[in-house]
């Protein structure tokens, strides 16, 4: 397990990402071709579900939406918890909503799906047999998770209270950004984008996957039937692009410095 993956398993840190899609085979084909993932069956408590592996190590999960479940096709960030039931209570008492669970995912762990007071959906994962992502930082693995919301000040206290984050503001007159730390390690971010927040999506958690070459990966995504929503650009942390898969699930790709 990489040290980055170990940091992602600390309580409060993003420890797992999972996608619910309409077609499991088509989704596996897309991400297999893009990231080199291989798939094995996972817990079937919501229906067909597979875990994605890279070089034999667990990276992410992909599930199939039941026809009667009208949920958005989107990547969900799961935050680690020592006790999903206690965390669910804290979410409710701090103004959030618990929509699913807490419930057991076979022997893998205990999970819940919740939303913050602004409506951004996230998961809670209490790992047992499956603690979370086993590799992070390598191409094809999640390297960062970021809440995109209207303004950081309205939602940061929720995450600080529920998950124990210490937040550090990026000092900039025109950039509303908080880096969330646990035990001194940066584990996630909150980006306040004001009126630039997509009306059709609202506040949401975004997963960043590492790639060896952002421009080449963006071209490959288009070849595979996906879309580039915001073309490759240089940032303080590397070259990043915002993209969507064949069913419209949005994620970011980053070629790190």
TrEMBL record:
InterPro entries: Anthracycline_SecMetBiosynth, Glyas_Bleomycin-R_OHBP_Dase, Glyoxalase_6, VOC_core. It comes from the Bacteria. This is VOC family protein. Residues 13-127, 141-256 form the VOC domain. Pfam families: Glyoxalase_6. It comes from Streptomyces lunalinharesii. PROSITE patterns: VOC (PS51819). Gene3D superfamilies: 2,3-Dihydroxybiphenyl 1,2-Dioxygenase, domain 1 (3.10.180.10).
């Amino acid at each position: 397990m990489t040290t980055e993956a170990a940091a992602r398993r600390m309580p409060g840190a993003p420890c797992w990402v999972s996608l619910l899609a309409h077609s499991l085979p088509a989704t596996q084909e897309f991400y297999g071709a893009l990231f080199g993932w291989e798939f094995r069956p996972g817990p079937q408590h919501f229906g067909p579900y597979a875990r994605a592996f890279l070089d034999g190590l667990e990276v992410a999960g992909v599930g199939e939406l039941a026809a009667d479940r009208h949920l958005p096709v989107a990547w969900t960030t799961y935050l680690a918890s020592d006790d999903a039931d206690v965390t669910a209570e804290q979410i409710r008492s701090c103004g959030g909503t618990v929509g699913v669970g807490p419930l057991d995912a076979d022997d893998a762990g205990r999970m819940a799906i919740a939303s913050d007071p602004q409506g951004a959906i996230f998961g809670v994962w209490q790992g047992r047999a499956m603690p979370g992502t086993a590799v992070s930082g390598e191409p094809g693995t999640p390297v960062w998770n970021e809440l995109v919301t209207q303004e950081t000040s309205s939602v940061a206290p929720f995450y600080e209270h529920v998950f124990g984050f210490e937040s550090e503001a990026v000092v900039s007159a025109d950039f509303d950004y908080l880096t969330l730390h646990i035990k001194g390690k940066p584990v996630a971010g909150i980006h306040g984008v004001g009126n630039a927040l997509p009306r059709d999506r609202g506040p949401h958690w975004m997963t960043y996957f590492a790639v060896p070459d952002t421009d080449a990966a963006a071209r490959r995504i288009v070849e595979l039937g996906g879309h580039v929503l915001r073309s490759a650009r240089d940032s303080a942390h590397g070259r990043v692009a915002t993209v969507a898969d064949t069913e419209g699930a949005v994620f970011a790709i980053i070629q790190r410095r």
